[in-house]
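Thread: Newbie trying to understand structure tokens

Hi all, I'm a second-year student working on a class project, and my supervisor (Dr. K.) asked me to get a predicted structure for one chain before our next meeting. I've only ever worked with sequences, so writing a 3D structure as a token string is new to me. If someone could post the tokens and maybe explain what I'm looking at, I'd be very grateful. Here's the chain:
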Amino acid sequence: MKVLVVGGGGREHALCWALRRDLSFDDLFCAPGNPGTADLAFNLPIGAHDDDHLIAAAGDNAIDLVVIGPEAPLARGLADKLRAAGLLVFGPSAAAARIEASKAFAKEVMAAADIPTAHSRTFSALNPALAYVDRHAEPLVVKASGLAAGKGAIVCPTRQEAKRTLTAMLRDGMFGDAGKQVVIESFLEGEELSILAISNANELLVLPPAQDHKRLREQDLGPNTGGMGAYSPVSIATPDLVQRVKHLVLEPALAELDRQGTPFVGVLYAGLMVGPDGSFKVIEFNCRLGDPEAQVVLPLVSGGLLEAFRAAATGAALPNLEVRVAAAVTTVLAAAGYPGEPARGAAISIPDQLPAGTLVFHAGTQRDEEGILRTNGGRVLAVTSVAATFQEAQKASGLAADAIGFEGKQFRRDIGWREAKRLGG
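---
Reply by user tm_fold:
Sure, no problem. This is what the structure looks like when written as tokens:
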């Protein structure tokens, strides 16, 4: 079986790492890939935006299954084009990917399916949005409806801050086309949780739950980012809570998408806010594996992933996954300037010896003409450590993050701090 993974970030490196357990180097391709995927798969110099060349390369290399990693090509309709060319694809259609590509659409799906979520209103014009804010309780959340690389949701402590944010999005083009429509919603108290599930359009296979850390600095301070780290499992995600999420969130969303004529094949991701009493509401849906959630969840799946992807793509019954009884912690190393304009070109040093059970996934890296590894993006590396306990995994990930060097390196030393507090750390 030959598989093509589309994308070039940390998520795609983690996918290639996981799929290599069932595939040889000659049977795994990544487009465009990165220096990390180059050790696992044959990198094709084709961008994830280059639909025609991706379709041609899939045919030229006799690809049996295409796995699309990022949200942008899914929202653009790459899966549809590949299927039209006769290829088997793991990833939703453009219509189904709207569950992530349009927060306004996601709210409509949740309303129709009676999925618990924050009260919200959607606006495309500035003045009505400002007038609505005048009547809204503080704090509140302003979200760009479109794809904004995980940075489009802004918590506003005051109405004045919300008005400034709305003006920046709707008048000044802060997020470009992604911010031409905005969702204003009530602020939710609690703890975030990511529940991801493989879907064949009819049934779901839930992956180990994870908790992402969106803020740049420790104790969840600083600006929002695409994600500074994650850990799994999460103790608040009890088996009972996961089953309730499956039955009250994921299954109704799947059914509503199917009712609308847009069956969902791929990874359906629910971002939740969980209250201290175990109640929850949906913050957002994503149409793919999270980043950095993929880097922390996939190392815990010890078998069955390729079979599950293929089954989902063909509409067959989903097999069981083999999941390790272990803990994983991922620490993201970001470039200077991130989440704004990241500095590029700094030389990266990765020691040959890192703590046992540690994996280094490449995200924003490249090799120069002399073969030196250099920074080439905002989030540069994701350092995942797997161990018997959360405390061991957290310590190993932090030590490895310390040991890797490049100028301007930013990272959080407190990934999993809520879990550590629950465990008495």
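A couple of things are worth pointing out once you decode it. The chain has a mean pLDDT of 96. Residues 3 and 65 are 5 Å apart (CA to CA). Feel free to ask follow-ups in this thread.
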